[in-house]
Amino acid sequence: MKRCKHKHWKERNILKEDYYTVEYDVYCKYCGKYLGHWNYGYSDVEENIKFEKWYNRAIHIIKTYIKNKILDFKIWGFKKHNDTDLPF
């Protein structure tokens, strides 16, 4: 029997924690032997929290602006101009 040289790998148990880090186990594609565990990327918790606060605040401001514009439209509606209102 020919010995497997593990030239072809296959990833299993892939875990993506967030956009920046990935973990997975590596197995041989042909014999199925466990070859190792890989983890790469970085995670800066403070940076992620800062971005989430900024993003949530921006979304809140945009939603408030849109609600106010809709409310103004409902209250005032379209302002129609009549030809009789001309000063001359």
Q: Topology, please?
A:
Layout: E1 9-16, E2 21-28, E3 34-41, H1 45-76
Antiparallel strand pairs: 1-2, 2-3
How would you portray this structure in words?
This protein has 88 residues and is α+β, with helices and mostly antiparallel strands. It contains one helix and three strands, in the order βββα. The chain has a three-stranded antiparallel beta sheet with strand order 1-2-3, with no helix packed on it. The longest helix has 32 residues, at 45-76. It is elongated, with a radius of gyration of 30 Å. The termini are far apart. The relative contact order is 0.11. The mean pLDDT is 76.
The ordered H/E elements are: EEEH
The helix fraction, in percent, is 25-40%
Low-pLDDT stretches: none
Distance between the terminal alpha carbons, to the nearest Å?
A: 105 Å
User: Hey, roughly how much beta strand do the residues contain?
Assistant: 25-35%
